[in-house]
Design a protein that fits this description.
Elements lengths: L1 H17 L7 H15 L2 H24 L6 H21 L3 H23 L7 H16 L3 H21 L6 H17 L1 H5 L3 H26 L15 H18 L5 H15 L6 H16 L2 H19 L6 H31 L1
Length: 358
């Protein structure tokens, strides 16, 4: 609701800066913001609706399986396709929250039925993830409802990650993390460009952003939780090749916004940032969570910011229990990082207070 109330003030500010030749459809903007707020609101209701719809659909599937559907590969595939198509139709046709959340349950179970049906056939193991990616992409192109688009983004990136796991090419997770980090950074920093590119993209932006965030966290879990998959420890730093420079670039952007342009001051901040990031080179999950925190701070995205902090704490804990380093080495690295963080905080807060007084 705050977005709707602030539209008039923001438009007036733009008119003063751009001139009164600037024209905008204020009513359409208000309706669009209201639609977005409605899709984001009522999280508890959405969760309960999804749970209820899921249980009802599971009961229906149980009935179908009891009737012998499990023994029919064609039947599983047919019902899977019908469930997915029905969910997309309901999501596109109806704007009611209960129907929308029920459609999500039907959508997910449709994929489960499709997977069960195809698994009965002797097909290449890579076909199913690729098929899921195509179906999810088509779904996004048809309907841009928040939750369904969010699930579709997770399915696309999850299928990409599953291709890596299926083929035992675990070192490719680094390239997955690099791709997700680049996509997420672009999505956050080019928000205005993406939203203004078209109506469909503007509706897809929020679920795409959240989906990419969780997709990156999934990839970081592979490198952050040692022993989860068999990866070459000598190349664990590969994900950091892009993530660390991206963090430094964000520090640059944040300093620019805060108008901290004193050379001595910025040099100290950059040095402290590099010293903080060096220990994370061999733990890309930590630098990746820092990237998420800074991106969300940069655009004031509270949900992602809290998620990033939780991920950071978790991955630091996993780093401490990494058996590839001695306890003394890990303790020194964590202690040094903690000291540098405190120095960094004290330095920046002191300078910000000084700037406010001036």
């Amino acid at each position: 609701m705050n977005n709707i109330h602030n539209i008039h003030d923001k438009l007036e500010l733009i008119r003063r800066s751009e001139g009164y030749g600037f024209v905008a459809d204020e009513n359409s903007l208000s309706l669009e913001y209201q639609r977005i707020d409605e899709e984001k609101s009522g999280l508890v209701i959405k969760i309960l609706s999804i749970a209820g719809g899921f249980l009802a659909t599971v009961s229906f599937i149980g009935f179908l399986l009891e009737a012998g559907l499990y023994n029919s590969e064609i039947g599983l595939i047919l019902f899977g396709v019908l469930f997915i198509a029905g969910a997309i139709y309901i999501s596109r046709k109806y704007q009611r929250q209960i129907l929308d959340t029920s459609a999500i349950s039907v959508y997910i179970i449709g994929f489960c039925l499709l997977a069960l049906g195809i698994s009965h056939f002797k097909v290449d193991k890579n076909i199913l993830p690729v098929l899921f990616m195509i179906i999810a992409a088509v779904s996004i192109s048809i309907t841009q409802r928040y939750m369904l688009s969010f699930i579709s983004v997770l399915i696309i990136n999850g299928s990409l990650l599953s291709l890596i796991v299926i083929n035992d090419a675990f070192d490719l997770v680094h390239f997955y993390n690099i791709l997700m980090a680049l996509c997420l950074t672009y999505c956050f920093l080019k928000e205005a460009k993406i939203i203004s590119a078209g109506k469909k993209l503007s509706r897809l932006y929020d679920p795409l952003r959240l989906g990419l965030l969780f997709s990156l966290l999934a990839g970081l879990a592979f490198v952050g939780k040692r022993g989860m998959v068999k990866m070459d420890a000598d190349f664990i730093w590969l994900s950091s090749v892009i993530i660390i420079p991206a963090v430094i670039y964000l520090v640059f952007l944040i300093l620019k916004i805060l108008e901290i342009d004193d050379r001595k001051r910025t040099t100290i901040i950059y040095i402290l940032s590099v010293l903080l990031l060096i220990p994370t080179a061999f733990s890309p999950a930590i630098s990746g969570s820092l990237l998420i925190i800074l991106l969300c701070f940069f655009v004031n995205y509270k949900t992602g910011f809290v998620t990033g902090i939780i991920a950071f704490i978790y991955f630091v804990g996993q780093y401490y229990y990494d058996l590839n380093f001695s306890l003394l080495t890990k303790s020194l690295l964590l202690f040094t990082t903690g000291v540098l963080l405190i120095i960094f905080f004290l330095f920046t807060s002191k300078k910000l207070r000084a700037d406010e007084k001036n």
